[in-house]
Amino acid sequence: MVRLVLKGSNKTYDSLHTDYKAEDYSFTILANSFKDRTKQEWDKKYLLSFGLVTGAGNLTNAGALFADDCPLWQSRLYCTRWDGMEKGDAINDAEFTGNVLMLLDIYDDRLTVTSPGGMYNGMLIQDMDIKDVSSERRNPILANVMAQLDYMEKRGSGLTRICNETKALEGYKDELKPIFKSTPTQFQTIIFASTDTPNVGDHDGDLTETKLTERQHQILNLIKESPTITGKQMSETLSVSQRTIERDLSAMQKKGVLKREGKDNDGVWVLNT
C-alpha cells in the first residue's frame, strides 16, 4: 500500500522530508568516504545536490540514513556467527547501531543475508531468471549516492555479479551457486563457502610454479595485452568488482608474480617472468 501511494504521488521513500534539522547532524563518514573514493574534497553543498537535505534545511529520509548518528529505525544490522550449520549456540554476535532489521547469519558452510522488503515489482526472485531481472530503483537518491561513491558499479548487475564473484572462487562447484529468495516482506541471499583451501605456490616469481586462480591468469593475460590497463577496466572486462581485482593484484604482487611501476594514474604493470 505504501509503495502504491508513493508511486501514485511520484515520490520515493528516500526523498520524503523529515523533521530532523541538518544542522543537528554530521556527515563525517560520508565526507571521508567521498574523499577516499572520488579523490575529491567534500563540500557541504553536496548534501543538497544529492537530495540528502531539503531547501529548508531538513533531512530527507536518505539524508537521515547517511547521517553519522542515524535517527531512523531502519538502520541496524545484527550479525551472528553460529556454531555449525544450523542455528543453535552462537559463537559470537554483534549488534550494530540502530534498530534490528537486517540480519547477517554466518554458518560453517554459508553466509545468509536477510533484509526487509521484497522485490519492488512484487514478484518472487526464486521464480525468475536473474539474467532477466530488470533494475527498478526503489530509492533513487540512495542509489545515486552509492554510484557517486563507486559502490554501485552498474545498474541491475548486483545479482549477476554475486554469482560471477562466487564462481571465480577457488573450489567452486555448481552446487555452491548462490541462492536468492524473496517474500513480499523480505529478501534473502545465501552464499556458500568453498570446501577447498587455496593452494599457494612455493616458488614466488616463477609463473610456471606459482598456483594462481583462473581469474588471476585472466588478469595476467589482460596485462600482457595492455600493461597500462586499470583495475576498473579489468573489472569491467571480467565482470567482477574492482575491489576483487585489487585483491587479486595485491595477492599476485605478494607472490612476486607482478609489480607496479610508476604512479597510480600513469604507471604500468610489469610481469616478473
Would you write up a description of this structure?
The termini are far apart. The chain has helices spanning 2-8, 28-38, 46-49, 61-66, 140-148, 158-167, 214-225, 231-238, 242-254, and strands at residues 17-21, 58-60, 74-82, 90-95, 99-106, 110-116, 179-182, 186-192, 258-261, 268-271. The model is unreliable at 197-208 (pLDDT under 50). A hairpin with a 3-residue loop joins strand 5 (99-106) and strand 6 (110-116). The chain has a six-stranded mixed beta sheet with strand order 4-3-5-6-8-7, with no helix packed on it. Strands 1-2 form a two-stranded antiparallel sheet. With 273 residues, it is α+β, with helices and mostly antiparallel strands. The protein has nine helices and ten strands. The protein has three domains: 2-66, no CATH class; 109-192, Heat Shock Protein 90 (2-Layer Sandwich); 214-271, Winged helix-like DNA-binding domain superfamily/Winged helix DNA-binding domain (Arc Repressor Mutant, subunit A).
Largest sheet: 6 strands, mixed
Instruction: Output the structural class.
Output: alpha+beta
Strand runs, count: 10
Distance between the termini: 63 Å
Architecture of the largest domain, according to CATH? Answer: 2-Layer Sandwich
C-alpha geometry: globular
| Helix run count | 9
The side-by-side strand order for the widest beta sheet comes to 4-3-5-6-8-7
Broad CATH class of the largest domain: Alpha Beta
Mean pLDDT: 81
Order of helices and strands: HEHHEHEEEEHHEEHHHEE
Low-pLDDT residue spans: 197-208
CA-based gyration radius:
22 Å
- β content, as a range? 15-25%
Amount of helix: 25-40%
CATH topology type of the largest domain:
Heat Shock Protein 90
